[in-house]
Predict the 3D structure of the following.
Amino acid sequence: MVHPFLILHWLEQQIHTHLGDHVTHMWFVMLVLILLAFLASRCIKEVPTGMQNLMEAAITGIENLIEETMGPKGKAYFPMLATFALFILVSNLIGLIPGLYPPTANLNTNAALALTVFAMTHIVGFKEHGVSYLKHFMGPILALAPLIFVIEIIGHLARPLSLSLRLFGNMYGHEIVLMIFIALVPILMPVPMMLMGVLVAFIQTFVFTLLAMIYIAGALEEAH
């Protein structure tokens, strides 16, 4: 725990449960997203305003990124990828609110997200190509196939590790730095650090989502 006081941790103690701060805050993020979806969709207008306008801008941005990165086939995976993006972004941002903890600053949360991407990548690959998907691991030269296969397997197994540690390291590191500056200079320094935190939150969301798109797009491509 990096924050000296967590609201949800205190509530958890009052009802004598021990789910873990990352679990309770993950549920909190889910409730926030459900509330935002409700506010954006309760009164749909042809010319969007307010929350509808904000959510449409976010969804359109994700949709355009998917189309540019994955092509027309990527639209089928929009619900999953958009969910990843919105969940990670809100999880990152709530860490800037005193008394709240970003679930993405916990390795367990990030590992779950990364393993989902890993599993989905290969499910998509086998669904798209059948057994021929294994050609992705063989390389273009048959004589080198055993060596290429081992290298590809190691590379694919490193993907969830990389996704997990990159997001965890950036978010947990920012939490520590922010708390140190708040303790040392509680009046002025937290403001620029929190502004930088907003930038980090968006960048890490973009990187994770973009890599997920690239991995799935790679599984959709024909083996060479």
About this structure: The chain is about 70% helix and 0% strand. The chain has one domain: 7-220. The longest helix spans residues 145-184. The two ends are 47 Å apart (CA to CA).
